[in-house]
Write a structure and sequence with these properties.
11 helices; binds iron/sulfur cluster; globular; about 25% helix; Elongation Factor Tu (Ef-tu), domain 3; about 400 residues; single chain; alpha/beta; 6-stranded antiparallel β-sheet; TIM Barrel; 2 domains
Length: about 400
């Protein structure tokens, strides 16, 4: 079988904990935000110390860290950027993700950090990719309107690394060209404040049918590209990005694990044809999501990619109950509880690779070895040891049938 160049799996890390989860569950690279210059002001974001620690944690395990600097900046915002860029260079940042030419110029002037052009720049064609390359870009994160086939052509013609989104929430607009949030909420979507106004219910004046008067007609379904993986590989796409720095630990771990396992399977077998495909799809559905769409990865996204429902209809059937902080055959499992569960509940442990481990919480103890019936969030509890369970494994529970 000819050797296959697999794309990297690039996972979101909204916090240091999530970075660790994503790396342990198989991410080849993660993207994170500092306290400034990114597009997710509501995410926890990394302090300088956390950036340093996160990069060393990832590098020790062979993963890369990209830092987002993709806000659109005014002159007054630029003054602190050189200092931050020098710091990123000193701590070994593997790349920065940038939308603004002024930021590209500053990064080039104050460091040798590779530059990735953000999807916010809406690069959709090879001429644009060539110009970014000339300006010093090493990689382009294409606009989500480009198909995988078009992306392959852009890569060949421009001779530059290409990254595409494979999973996560979508914009109804070209990313970076939407100002609904600015006008309706006073929050600038191009400077980190998007209020997700496209998810709201809107009414259309002039339509007389009641069911059309109020609708969520600007809310997109979520992107899911599992079955498109062979095409990404065939077109030589370099990096597959999972959206969602604001999403949960469970999301970061589950999505990263599914796509990494699928790529590993492809590497070994040259295809995805296995029962695992159904298992991977069922895993993707266990995390809170709107209905899935392949958006424009293969064919142009149409009306069937609209999620015409209230956001809370996308609630998860499963919730995270905690993280394993210790697993020892003698002393058992210590779990940091995130959401309460009861004695006798059925729990699912998610290993870094392979099938989930099922347990029933017949015995729950506190750390003084007193039996408890119901756990409390943010406490530590002890469960009997189960083979295969390791520190940092995530644990979840079904909450809806
Ligand atoms: S309001 Fe919606 S479409 Fe606009 S930037 Fe935010 S997520 Fe994207």
């Amino acid at each position: 079988m000819k050797s296959i160049n697999l794309p990297e799996i690039l996972a979101p890390a909204g916090s240091l904990d999530k970075l660790k989860v994503a790396v342990l569950y198989g991410a080849n690279a993660v993207y994170v935000g500092g306290q400034k210059f990114g597009l997710r002001t509501a995410a926890e974001n990394f302090t300088l110390d956390e950036l340093r620690e996160g990069i060393s944690f990832a590098h020790e395990r062979g993963a890369k860290v990209y830092v987002v600097l993709n806000s659109f900046l005014h002159d007054k915002d630029l003054s602190e950027l050189p200092q931050f860029v020098s710091f990123l260079s000193e701590i070994g940042t593997d790349a920065v993700i940038v939308s603004d030419l002024g930021v590209v110029r500053t990064v080039k002037e104050f460091s040798n950090i590779p530059v990735h052009i953000s999807t916010q720049a809406s690069t959709l064609n090879s001429q644009s990719a060539k110009l970014w390359k000339k300006a010093g870009a090493d990689r382009i994160v294409l606009g989500r309107e480009v198909s995988v086939k078009e992306a392959g052509k852009i890569k060949r013609e421009a001779g530059i690394e290409i990254e595409m989104f494979i999973h996560g929430s979508m914009c109804m607009a070209y990313s970076g060209h939407c100002v609904i949030s600015n006008f309706t909420q006073g929050r600038d979507s191009n400077r980190g404040g998007c209020a997700h106004s496209c998810r709201f219910e809107y009414s259309i004046e002039g339509l007389d049918t009641p069911e059309k008067k109020k609708a969520y007609f600007m809310s997109s379904k979520d992107l899911e590209g599992l079955r498109v993986l062979p095409q990404f590989i065939e077109e030589g796409i370099d990096s597959l990005k999972i959206e969602g720095r604001m999403k949960s630990h469970l999301y970061a771990g589950t999505m990263t694990k599914v796509y990494s396992e699928a790529l590993d399977f492809f590497k070994e077998n040259g295809n995805f044809l296995s029962d695992d495909l159904l298992r991977w799809e069922s895993e993707l559905k266990k995390v809170s999501h709107r209905s899935y769409t392949e958006a424009s990865l293969v064919n142009k996204a149409g009306a069937d990619s609209i999620f015409n429902e209230r956001e809370n209809s996308a609630e998860a059937e499963w919730q995270m109950v905690g993280t394993v902080v210790e697993a020892n055959p003698e002393s058992g499992i210590v779990l940091e509880v995130r959401n309460a569960f009861n004695q006798g509940d059925h729990l699912e442990m998610i290993p870094f690779k392979g099938e989930n481990i099922q347990i029933t919480a017949n015995e729950i103890m506190d750390l003084s070895m007193r039996a408890i019936q119901r756990t409390k969030p943010t406490t530590l509890v002890r469960l009997p040891f189960v083979d295969g369970v390791k520190k940092m494994h995530l644990v979840r529970q079904r909450i809806k049938a």
